[in-house]
Amino acid sequence: MEYRKIKDEDKDEGAAGDDIESLRNKSISAPISNVATLGGESNDRSKWKRNLGKNLENEGVTEDNRLSTTLDEVSVYPIPAALYLVKNLLQYYIFAYVDAPGYQILKNLNIISTGVLYQMILKRKLSEIQWAAFILLCAGCTTAQLNPSSDHVLQTPYQGWIMAIVMALLSGFAGVYTEAIIKKRPSRNINVQNFWLYVFGMVFNAVAILIQDFDAVMNKGFFHGYSLITVLMILNHALSGIAVSMVMKYADNIVKVYATSVAMLLTAIVSVFLFGFHLSLAFFLGSTVVSVSVYLHSIGKLTRQR
Amino acid sequence: MEYRKIKDEDKDEGAAGDDIESLRNKSISAPISNVATLGGESNDRSKWKRNLGKNLENEGVTEDNRLSTTLDEVSVYPIPAALYLVKNLLQYYIFAYVDAPGYQILKNLNIISTGVLYQMILKRKLSEIQWAAFILLCAGCTTAQLNPSSDHVLQTPYQGWIMAIVMALLSGFAGVYTEAIIKKRPSRNINVQNFWLYVFGMVFNAVAILIQDFDAVMNKGFFHGYSLITVLMILNHALSGIAVSMVMKYADNIVKVYATSVAMLLTAIVSVFLFGFHLSLAFFLGSTVVSVSVYLHSIGKLTRQR
């Protein structure tokens, strides 16, 4: 309840202080610090009132939903694309040190890195109980994924650990930075924000294709090997990408991490009915810990420090 | 801090309201309800002042440390002894349905039953966070004990589950009842209280020996098979029994459950150095969850409902 109220204030203050027009002359090197003040104490509502008329023009092309942009706005969009590119490339190299189930387990480090970077970069403080809940979320998700060969991950060589930690930091930073970009202009249309995020994603991936797979694409064509399943997976990824951007805009990375974790558990439960999956005792224990974590996160909001 | 204060008040009020003399004429059938009022609102300190002189006589034989007792005091002591006897006998029968590692896992149900009975019988309310911590303690201890064959426990037949639940309830009830007995007379010497607890334990066990092992004891003698290890184990059990009774008198069953759980984790860590034990990933995850649980229990005290 209280948290909801804080978030609404954020949006109002954002609409007042961070409108495109008012930011046009600001330094392009300070996008994050602008966002960090979203939850600040400013009670200056006059700008908000001035912009009210503008926000009501929600039909046709307006300043908020037009595709054209400024260097100031667009200059930060390549950053998450570049971070995800590096992280995705690392993903190929880490398998020299870790097997696939081990990698699934190490991926849970994302939860901790997202929490740390969320607090550091967005300056939104998590309460002590919420931090406890976050550690439990990480431990619970890992427990739920345990299988008899999981202990192999403890024999991961230090290069594997370093890569896993770097990947978790890159992924966490990219997520938090995307939230900062999207939240920086709360009145800006989300589809336009997605457009610019994906444009740079496409550019970087095109470069990666040119470097890594140029011959294969030239000989067999770009769509070689595409099946119905491939197309469905692309659609699925595109839709979940849009959903994630909405979570970034209207909620935050913490909600995203919880949603992803609960989705993992629900996927396992659905797999019982669809594929006759066998749920382990570890899954029940991990699910219990994740459930308590969700509960603690929600009651932690009420006592959170501001 | 606040909890400590409440506890101190309990002791004072106990010393005032539940002195042996003043209880001598009370009904012997209401030992628990007396204890349940220990945390009550009574501010009547006059009796406390009257008894102050008596409490200071702490040398030689006094009313508090003399071994002789009244029917009122002693009548409740056989109850925990009987409960533990039934629980220990059930332990032989449950192995028809569960293997030893499975039983270790089911034993963690004790944690939940102790929490439920503690709140129901001693009427000390655990806060919401403390309940969350208690569920985590149970899940974390079980996780720490996971091994590749743990999933067998999910195939336990319903008779095994029922016996495990009954054993957990008996053990939880015996623990909480012992705390009620010991706390009922806060000024009574703890060694005397232990004496009477163990007298009935010995009587019940003597009966069990007569019924189950009469021939063996007659033919081979009572001490047949005793080795140095046996004697050391008896000493160890005796000392830990005295330690537990002190926890019951000066702390409570919740502290006992946490202490037992943390001791289990420490035993595993010590075993790494002594016996070259191999710690599993599940152990690290379970230990993490238990650690967060201990932390949450302690901050839960500050916000606990009274």
Descriptive keywords:
306 residues; 14 helices; mainly alpha; globular
Summarize the structure.
Chains A, B: It is a multi-pass membrane protein. 2 copies of one chain form a homodimer. Helices cover 73% and strands 0% of the residues of chain A.
Tell me what you see in this structure.
The structure is a homodimer of 306-residue chains. With 306 residues, chain A is an all-alpha fold. Chain A has one domain. Helix content of chain A is 73%, strand content 0%. The first copy, chain A, is built from 14 helices and no strands. In chain A, α1 crosses α4. The two termini of chain A are 15 Å apart. Chains A, B: It is found in: Membrane. Chains A, B: One of its GO terms (molecular function) is pyrimidine nucleotide-sugar transmembrane transporter activity.
List the helices and strands and how they pair.
The structure is a homodimer of 306-residue chains.
Chain A (H helix, E strand, L loop, with lengths): L1 H16 L2 H4 L7 H6 L9 H11 L14 H4 L3 H17 L5 H7 L2 H14 L5 H17 L13 H27 L5 H31 L7 H23 L2 H23 L5 H22 L4
Quantity of strands of chain A, as a count: 0
Overall tally of domains of chain A: 1
Q: Spans of chain A of 5+ residues with little confidence (pLDDT < 50)?
A: 1-44
Distance between the termini of chain A: 15 Å
Count of DSSP-assigned helices of chain A:
14
Backbone structural class of chain A: mainly alpha
- Describe the largest sheet of chain A: none
The global form of chain A is globular
Give me the strand/helix succession of chain A. Answer: HHHHHHHHHHHHHH
Please state the average pLDDT score of chain A: 81
